[in-house]
């Protein structure tokens, strides 16, 4: 029989220490205790939260009944000519379905944005054939609530009974569960409340949208089931133990970054899922593991990784990878969840909370509640780009984007990182992702890229709670579209800007340098930005 997953350690500088960490984990039977749901594994402070967060270890069994229910709903919808699935959900409520459907090659429109243009494009699709899945564990996430309001109105405006086209996934008792009951939405799938968002790939959050879109979710559970005995075993061959020990020891030696490249796994977008799991689980109390997702095995950050990073191939090993993990998606989900929970124990943190996420949400809410009477003036304007630096790091005589970028990179400590955060349309503005390798190549810093506000529910926890060695480049842009949020005093563009400004304030409050570049014309702005990066030469 072929192994359900393979973890290859291509090179490890600290073999003996890794072996010690492995034997400590095994001596205390940590893997089997984790699989049995022992909440004491992360110390007394984490125990009460862990007690309501460990049901993910058995989802390959407990989620089985969902498969038939989802298939029945899909058949009903198809009979009614409804075959376009739009998913409104942030972070753990959309990252897994995006990978599952991308890998299966079935279409799913994911709404995890407040960009007015991107939402307008989703609305412009064929509403006659559309079902909206509204996924939110808490039932109170502002983006998801906005999408529900916007689509409900759009269905009604198009003469479609919105109730028949909205399917909800949420925790029992959440505000969204109450709204769904009151409105009489088509179906409500109660999620397992004892699984946190980023560990919920194999709950209703991962399975409902993916199954409705046509992915083979039964097979996904089979893949997880095949690996379950391996990750629960108190054995030195346990793939999750091997990974966790590598990361904990690397972290102790100053390699707190994990650079992920897909090397031909056949999985689409795994990095986007795993980065939330690792960053949000571990990035807190000034420590953690920073995932850096790169374009491929030849990308900057991977080929030229230094001593501050471990390179991981998802797929076969390549010359630059230190570790290679090969296996199907369902197995990868479970192995990385176990590895993260085990690494969290090694780092001495609670891998199930996200103490710094709320701060940015609160700052955005304050800005929406009390908008500034006069907008802030840019520090300088360079063609179609306005620059808004946080206080205290940009010399006053800097007047060009190229110089400002150079100063931002120079403000990072040695072995720090640069985080690029694009509050833009990740479909129409997809080419902004090019900025990451361009900057990484010149900055000689590990460089991450995230779409705002999506990353706020993912790596955003690490930026504020993890190692304090990041510098931050925010990109915001003018929009030609306006999308109102029904029964709310703001439109999406206003919300999007408040989210960028709110997170920027919180980062600056942590003493981190933040440069916001606002593109008054997105296309011309990108061209100018790339030119400035190339000219920068830092
Ligand atoms: O599912 P929801 O309650 O809407 O939450 C969606 C996401 O947003 C939060 O801010 C958390 O940081 C994430 O862990 C979570 O996955």
TrEMBL record:
In its UniProt entry, what is this protein called? Glucose-6-phosphate isomerase
Q: Which UniProt keywords apply?
A: Gluconeogenesis, Glycolysis, Isomerase
Q: Give GO terms: molecular function aspect only.
A: carbohydrate derivative binding; glucose-6-phosphate isomerase activity; monosaccharide binding
- Enzyme Commission code: 5.3.1.9
Q: Which reaction does it catalyse?
A: alpha-D-glucose 6-phosphate = beta-D-fructose 6-phosphate
Q: Name one GO cellular component term.
A: cytosol
Involved pathway(s): Carbohydrate degradation; glycolysis; D-glyceraldehyde 3-phosphate and glycerone phosphate from D-glucose: step 2/4
An annotated GO BP:
glycolytic process
**Protein family according to the UniProt entry:** Belongs to the GPI family.
PANTHER family recorded: GLUCOSE-6-PHOSPHATE ISOMERASE
InterPro entries to which the protein is assigned, alphabetical: G6P_Isomerase, SIS_dom_sf
């Amino acid at each position: 029989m072929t192994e359900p997953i393979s973890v290859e350690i291509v090179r490890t500088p600290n073999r003996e220490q890794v072996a010690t960490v492995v034997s400590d984990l095994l001596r205390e039977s940590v893997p089997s205790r984790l699989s049995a749901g022992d909440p004491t594994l992360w110390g007394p402070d984490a125990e009460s939260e862990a007690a309501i967060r460990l049901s993910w270890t058995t989802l390959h069994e407990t989620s089985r009944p969902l498969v038939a229910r989802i298939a029945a709903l899909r058949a009903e919808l198809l009979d009614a000519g409804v075959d376009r699935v739009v998913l409104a959900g942030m972070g753990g409520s959309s990252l897994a379905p995006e990978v599952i459907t991308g890998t299966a090659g079935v279409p799913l429109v994911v709404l995890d944005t407040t960009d007015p243009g991107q939402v307008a494009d989703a609305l412009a699709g064929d509403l006659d054939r559309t079902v909206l899945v509204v996924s939110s564990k808490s039932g109170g996430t502002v983006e998801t609530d906005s999408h529900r309001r916007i689509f409900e109105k759009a269905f009604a405006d198009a003469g479609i009974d919105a109730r028949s086209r909205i399917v909800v996934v949420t925790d029992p008792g959440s505000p969204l569960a109450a709204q769904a009951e009151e409105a009489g939405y088509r179906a409500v799938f109660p999620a397992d409340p004892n699984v946190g968002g980023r560990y919920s790939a194999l709950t209703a959050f991962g399975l409902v949208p993916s199954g409705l879109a046509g992915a083979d979710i039964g097979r996904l559970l089979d893949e997880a089931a095949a690996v379950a005995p391996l990750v629960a075993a108190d054995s030195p061959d346990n793939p999750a133990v091997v990974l966790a020990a590598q990361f904990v020891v690397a972290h102790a030696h100053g390699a707190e970054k994990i650079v992920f490249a897909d090397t031909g796994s056949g999985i689409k977008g795994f990095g986007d899922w795993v980065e939330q799991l690792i960053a949000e689980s571990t990035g807190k109390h000034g420590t953690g593991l920073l995932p850096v997702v790169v374009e491929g095995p030849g990308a900057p950050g991977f080929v030229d990784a230094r001593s501050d990073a471990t390179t991981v191939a998802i797929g076969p090993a390549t010359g630059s990878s230190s570790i290679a993990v090969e296996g199907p998606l369902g197995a990868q989900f479970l192995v990385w969840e176990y590895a993260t929970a085990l690494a969290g124990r090694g780092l001495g943190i609670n891998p199930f909370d996200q103490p710094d996420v709320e701060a940015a949400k609160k700052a955005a809410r304050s800005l929406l509640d009390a908008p500034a009477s006069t907008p802030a003036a840019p520090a300088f304007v360079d063609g179609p780009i306005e620059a808004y630096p946080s206080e205290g790091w940009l010399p006053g005589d800097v007047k060009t984007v190229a110089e400002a970028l150079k100063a931002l990179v120079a403000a990072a400590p040695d072995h720090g990182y640069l985080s690029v955060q694009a509050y833009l349309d990740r479909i129409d503005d997809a080419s902004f992702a090019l900025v990451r390798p361009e900057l990484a190549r010149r900055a000689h810093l590990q460089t991450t890229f995230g779409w705002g506000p999506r990353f706020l529910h993912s790596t955003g926890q690490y930026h504020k709670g993890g190692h304090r060695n990041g510098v931050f480049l925010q990109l915001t842009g003018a929009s030609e579209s306006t999308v109102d949020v029904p029964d709310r005093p703001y439109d999406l563009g206003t919300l999007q800007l408040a989210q960028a400004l709110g997170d920027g304030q919180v980062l600056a409050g942590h003493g981190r340098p933040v440069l916001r570049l606002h593109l008054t014309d997105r296309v011309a702005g990108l061209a100018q930005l790339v030119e400035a990066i190339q000219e920068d030469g830092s």
